[in-house]
C-alpha cells in the first residue's frame, strides 16, 4: 500500500491478505478481538505492489477507489508494518505487499 506523495510527502507500502476474498473473510473473523496479530514475527516473501494507498486524511484506497468497508480497513490497519527499508507493507503469514 502506498501513501501518495502529494498526500503525505513520502512513498509507503503495505501488505494484503492472501487467499482471495475467502482468506480476507477468515482473517477478518480471526481478528474480531482486540489482540493485534504478531506481524513483527512474520517473514513472508514480497509479492508486489497491489495499489493500496492511505491518504493524508486517513482514508484508505485500493487502485484509486476509496475502501468504504470499515471492517476491511480495520483488518488492513492491523497488518500494516514499517520495515527497516523505511517502507510500509501489509503483511500476512504468507505474503507481503505494498
What features would you describe in this structure?
- The protein is of the alpha+beta class and 98 residues long.
- 24% of the residues lie in helices and 20% in strands.
- The chain is built from three helices and seven strands.
- The strands form two sheets. Strands 1-7-6-5 form a four-stranded mixed beta sheet. Strands 2-3-4 form a three-stranded antiparallel beta sheet, with no helix packed on it.
- The longest helix has 11 residues, at 20-30.
- It starts with a helix and ends with a strand.
The pLDDT mean sits at 80
- The Rg value, from CA coordinates, equals 13 Å
User: Could you tell me the strand content as a percent range?
Assistant: 15-25%
Can you count the beta strands?
7
Shape: globular
Low-confidence residue ranges: 4-18
Task: Kindly name the structural category.
Answer: alpha+beta
- Name the helicity range: 10-25%
H-E string: HHEEEEHEEE
Q: Span from first to last CA?
A: 4 Å
Tell me the number of helical segments per DSSP (H or I, 4 or more residues long): 3
Strand order in the largest sheet: 1-7-6-5
| Biggest sheet record | 4 strands, mixed
In short:
By secondary structure, this protein is an alpha+beta fold. It has helices at 5-8, 20-30, 70-78; strands at 46-48, 52-54, 60-62, 65-66, 80-82, 88-91, 96-97. Helix content is 24%, strand content 20%.
